[in-house]
Amino acid sequence: MNDLLRGINLYLIGMMGAGKTTVGKLLTKQLGYRFIDTDEVITQVAGQSINQFFAEQGEEAFRTLESQVLSELCAHQRLVVATGGGIILKRTNWGYLRHGLIVWLDVSPEDLYQRLQGDTTRPLLQHDNPLGRLQEIIEQRKPFYAEADVKVTVTQDDTPEQVMSNILELIPTVLKAASKKTSQATSQPFEDEQN
Ligand SMILES: Nc1ncnc2c1ncn2[C@@H]1O[C@H](COP(=O)(O)OP(=O)(O)OP(=O)(O)O)[C@@H](O)[C@H]1O
Ligand SMILES: O=C(O)C1=C[C@@H](O)[C@@H](O)[C@H](O)C1
Ligand SMILES: [Mg+2]
Fold first, then answer.
1. Computed from CA positions of residues 55, 56, 60, 62, in that sequence, does the dihedral angle turn out positive or negative?
2. N or C: which end of the chain has fewer CB within 10 A?
Protein backbone atom coordinates (compact mmCIF):
# COMPACT_ATOMS: atom_id res chain seq x y z
CA MET A 1 0.00 0.00 0.00
CA ASN A 2 2.77 2.45 0.93
CA ASP A 3 4.49 1.82 -2.43
CA LEU A 4 1.25 2.49 -4.21
CA LEU A 5 0.54 5.71 -2.31
CA ARG A 6 4.09 7.05 -2.75
CA GLY A 7 3.65 9.39 0.21
CA ILE A 8 0.68 11.31 -1.16
CA ASN A 9 -1.60 12.79 1.46
CA LEU A 10 -5.00 11.35 2.26
CA TYR A 11 -7.72 13.96 2.76
CA LEU A 12 -10.78 12.75 4.63
CA ILE A 13 -13.92 14.70 3.86
CA GLY A 14 -17.47 14.37 5.13
CA MET A 15 -19.98 15.81 7.51
CA MET A 16 -19.28 16.70 11.12
CA GLY A 17 -19.32 13.47 13.08
CA ALA A 18 -18.61 11.28 10.03
CA GLY A 19 -15.56 9.82 11.78
CA LYS A 20 -12.78 11.70 9.98
CA THR A 21 -10.79 12.22 13.17
CA THR A 22 -11.44 8.75 14.58
CA VAL A 23 -10.76 6.83 11.37
CA GLY A 24 -7.97 9.21 10.33
CA LYS A 25 -5.99 8.37 13.45
CA LEU A 26 -6.38 4.64 12.75
CA LEU A 27 -5.20 5.11 9.15
CA THR A 28 -2.02 6.90 10.23
CA LYS A 29 -0.97 3.92 12.32
CA GLN A 30 -1.55 1.55 9.44
CA LEU A 31 0.24 3.70 6.86
CA GLY A 32 3.02 5.18 9.01
CA TYR A 33 1.62 8.62 8.19
CA ARG A 34 1.17 11.69 10.40
CA PHE A 35 -2.27 12.88 11.48
CA ILE A 36 -3.46 16.47 11.08
CA ASP A 37 -6.90 17.83 11.83
CA THR A 38 -7.63 21.18 10.16
CA ASP A 39 -10.12 22.10 12.90
CA GLU A 40 -7.43 21.51 15.52
CA VAL A 41 -4.87 23.59 13.63
CA ILE A 42 -7.40 26.43 13.36
CA THR A 43 -8.13 26.21 17.08
CA GLN A 44 -4.40 26.48 17.84
CA VAL A 45 -3.69 29.28 15.37
CA ALA A 46 -6.73 31.31 16.44
CA GLY A 47 -6.28 30.58 20.14
CA GLN A 48 -10.00 29.93 20.52
CA SER A 49 -12.51 27.14 20.06
CA ILE A 50 -14.41 26.71 16.79
CA ASN A 51 -17.58 27.84 18.59
CA GLN A 52 -15.90 31.02 19.84
CA PHE A 53 -14.38 31.67 16.44
CA PHE A 54 -17.77 31.39 14.69
CA ALA A 55 -19.42 33.57 17.31
CA GLU A 56 -16.78 36.32 17.33
CA GLN A 57 -15.45 36.36 13.76
CA GLY A 58 -18.16 34.63 11.77
CA GLU A 59 -18.24 31.71 9.35
CA GLU A 60 -16.66 33.62 6.43
CA ALA A 61 -13.52 34.39 8.46
CA PHE A 62 -13.43 30.74 9.54
CA ARG A 63 -13.59 29.57 5.91
CA THR A 64 -10.76 31.92 4.94
CA LEU A 65 -8.49 30.62 7.69
CA GLU A 66 -9.49 27.03 6.85
CA SER A 67 -8.36 27.56 3.23
CA GLN A 68 -5.09 29.05 4.39
CA VAL A 69 -4.41 26.07 6.66
CA LEU A 70 -5.26 23.60 3.90
CA SER A 71 -3.02 25.38 1.37
CA GLU A 72 -0.05 25.03 3.71
CA LEU A 73 -0.57 21.31 4.19
CA CYS A 74 -0.01 20.65 0.46
CA ALA A 75 3.72 21.26 0.98
CA HIS A 76 3.91 18.18 3.20
CA GLN A 77 3.76 14.48 2.44
CA ARG A 78 2.63 11.37 4.28
CA LEU A 79 -0.24 13.09 6.04
CA VAL A 80 -3.72 11.87 6.84
CA VAL A 81 -5.72 15.10 7.00
CA ALA A 82 -9.09 15.17 8.75
CA THR A 83 -10.78 18.21 7.23
CA GLY A 84 -13.58 20.38 8.56
CA GLY A 85 -17.03 19.33 7.34
CA GLY A 86 -17.42 22.46 5.21
CA ILE A 87 -14.01 22.39 3.50
CA ILE A 88 -15.64 21.28 0.25
CA LEU A 89 -17.63 24.53 -0.02
CA LYS A 90 -14.81 26.64 -1.48
CA ARG A 91 -13.77 25.87 -5.05
CA THR A 92 -10.16 26.90 -4.34
CA ASN A 93 -9.93 24.23 -1.64
CA TRP A 94 -10.42 21.53 -4.28
CA GLY A 95 -7.17 22.61 -5.94
CA TYR A 96 -5.39 21.86 -2.66
CA LEU A 97 -7.28 18.65 -1.93
CA ARG A 98 -6.47 17.30 -5.39
CA HIS A 99 -2.77 17.23 -4.45
CA GLY A 100 -3.66 14.07 -2.58
CA LEU A 101 -6.29 11.38 -2.52
CA ILE A 102 -9.72 12.50 -1.32
CA VAL A 103 -11.81 10.05 0.68
CA TRP A 104 -15.46 10.79 1.52
CA LEU A 105 -16.93 9.16 4.62
CA ASP A 106 -20.62 9.01 3.75
CA VAL A 107 -22.78 8.62 6.86
CA SER A 108 -26.58 9.04 6.97
CA PRO A 109 -28.01 12.08 8.81
CA GLU A 110 -29.78 9.74 11.26
CA ASP A 111 -26.50 8.05 12.23
CA LEU A 112 -24.74 11.42 12.48
CA TYR A 113 -27.53 12.65 14.72
CA GLN A 114 -27.14 9.64 17.00
CA ARG A 115 -23.41 10.21 17.26
CA LEU A 116 -23.60 13.96 17.86
CA GLN A 117 -26.57 14.10 20.21
CA GLY A 118 -25.67 16.32 23.12
CA ASP A 119 -22.46 17.54 21.45
CA THR A 120 -22.21 21.31 21.77
CA THR A 121 -18.92 21.81 19.93
CA ARG A 122 -20.44 22.02 16.41
CA PRO A 123 -21.79 25.57 15.95
CA LEU A 124 -23.85 24.70 12.87
CA LEU A 125 -25.87 22.22 14.95
CA GLN A 126 -26.86 24.65 17.70
CA HIS A 127 -30.39 24.60 16.34
CA ASP A 128 -33.94 23.69 17.49
CA ASN A 129 -34.06 20.77 15.08
CA PRO A 130 -30.49 19.41 14.69
CA LEU A 131 -31.59 16.33 12.71
CA GLY A 132 -33.49 18.51 10.20
CA ARG A 133 -30.47 20.82 10.00
CA LEU A 134 -28.16 17.86 9.34
CA GLN A 135 -30.47 16.61 6.57
CA GLU A 136 -30.54 20.06 5.01
CA ILE A 137 -26.77 20.52 5.11
CA ILE A 138 -26.13 17.05 3.65
CA GLU A 139 -28.51 17.71 0.76
CA GLN A 140 -26.69 20.94 -0.06
CA ARG A 141 -23.24 19.39 0.21
CA LYS A 142 -23.72 15.97 -1.35
CA PRO A 143 -22.79 17.09 -4.90
CA PHE A 144 -19.50 18.45 -3.52
CA TYR A 145 -18.64 15.46 -1.34
CA ALA A 146 -19.39 13.23 -4.33
CA GLU A 147 -16.39 14.72 -6.13
CA ALA A 148 -14.07 12.69 -3.87
CA ASP A 149 -11.80 10.06 -5.39
CA VAL A 150 -13.12 7.42 -3.01
CA LYS A 151 -16.56 7.18 -1.45
CA VAL A 152 -16.91 4.97 1.61
CA THR A 153 -20.46 4.34 2.71
CA VAL A 154 -20.52 3.88 6.47
CA THR A 155 -23.42 1.94 7.97
CA GLN A 156 -24.45 1.86 11.59
CA ASP A 157 -22.70 -1.47 12.16
CA ASP A 158 -19.34 -0.40 10.75
CA THR A 159 -16.80 0.05 13.48
CA PRO A 160 -14.04 2.63 12.91
CA GLU A 161 -11.64 -0.29 12.27
CA GLN A 162 -14.01 -1.66 9.61
CA VAL A 163 -14.25 1.76 7.96
CA MET A 164 -10.47 2.00 7.95
CA SER A 165 -10.07 -1.37 6.29
CA ASN A 166 -12.76 -0.52 3.70
CA ILE A 167 -10.76 2.60 2.82
CA LEU A 168 -7.52 0.64 2.55
CA GLU A 169 -9.24 -1.83 0.22
CA LEU A 170 -10.65 0.88 -2.03
CA ILE A 171 -7.51 3.01 -2.38
CA PRO A 172 -5.62 0.62 -4.72
CA THR A 173 -8.61 0.45 -7.07
CA VAL A 174 -8.61 4.21 -7.67
CA LEU A 175 -4.82 4.54 -7.77
CA LYS A 176 -4.54 1.78 -10.36
CA ALA A 177 -7.32 3.30 -12.45
CA ALA A 178 -5.53 6.67 -12.32
CA SER A 179 -2.15 5.25 -13.32
CA LYS A 180 -3.78 3.35 -16.21
CA LYS A 181 -5.30 6.61 -17.49
CA THR A 182 -1.93 8.37 -17.23
CA SER A 183 -0.10 5.66 -19.14
CA GLN A 184 -2.79 5.61 -21.84
CA ALA A 185 -2.55 9.39 -22.17
CA THR A 186 1.25 9.35 -22.47
CA SER A 187 1.25 6.52 -25.00
CA GLN A 188 -1.32 8.27 -27.19
CA PRO A 189 1.05 10.60 -29.16
CA PHE A 190 3.27 7.63 -29.95
CA GLU A 191 0.41 5.70 -31.43
CA ASP A 192 -0.63 8.77 -33.43
CA GLU A 193 2.83 9.06 -34.93
CA GLN A 194 2.74 5.45 -36.07
CA ASN A 195 -0.64 5.85 -37.76
N1 LIG B 1 -17.65 4.06 12.70
C2 LIG B 1 -18.12 4.62 13.80
N3 LIG B 1 -19.11 4.05 14.48
C4 LIG B 1 -19.65 4.62 15.60
N5 LIG B 1 -19.23 5.80 16.12
C6 LIG B 1 -18.23 6.42 15.48
C7 LIG B 1 -17.64 5.88 14.29
N8 LIG B 1 -16.70 6.75 13.86
C9 LIG B 1 -16.71 7.78 14.76
N10 LIG B 1 -17.62 7.58 15.72
C11 LIG B 1 -17.95 8.47 16.85
O12 LIG B 1 -18.66 9.59 16.32
C13 LIG B 1 -18.25 10.80 16.93
C14 LIG B 1 -17.69 11.76 15.88
O15 LIG B 1 -16.51 11.21 15.31
P16 LIG B 1 -15.30 12.15 14.81
O17 LIG B 1 -15.02 13.20 15.82
O18 LIG B 1 -14.19 11.24 14.42
O19 LIG B 1 -15.98 12.82 13.54
P20 LIG B 1 -15.40 13.96 12.60
O21 LIG B 1 -15.76 13.58 11.21
O22 LIG B 1 -13.97 14.19 12.88
O23 LIG B 1 -16.26 15.24 13.04
P24 LIG B 1 -15.91 16.81 12.86
O25 LIG B 1 -16.00 17.14 11.39
O26 LIG B 1 -16.98 17.54 13.60
O27 LIG B 1 -14.56 17.04 13.42
C28 LIG B 1 -17.20 10.40 17.98
O29 LIG B 1 -17.86 10.29 19.22
C30 LIG B 1 -16.70 9.04 17.53
O31 LIG B 1 -16.29 8.24 18.60
O1 LIG C 1 -19.62 21.19 8.66
C2 LIG C 1 -19.12 22.28 8.94
O3 LIG C 1 -19.34 23.30 8.27
C4 LIG C 1 -18.17 22.35 10.07
C5 LIG C 1 -17.63 21.20 10.58
C6 LIG C 1 -16.61 21.17 11.63
O7 LIG C 1 -15.63 20.20 11.30
C8 LIG C 1 -15.94 22.52 11.82
O9 LIG C 1 -15.04 22.78 10.78
C10 LIG C 1 -16.97 23.61 11.87
O11 LIG C 1 -17.79 23.35 12.98
C12 LIG C 1 -17.81 23.68 10.60
MG1 LIG D 1 -12.90 15.88 13.48
1. negative
2. C
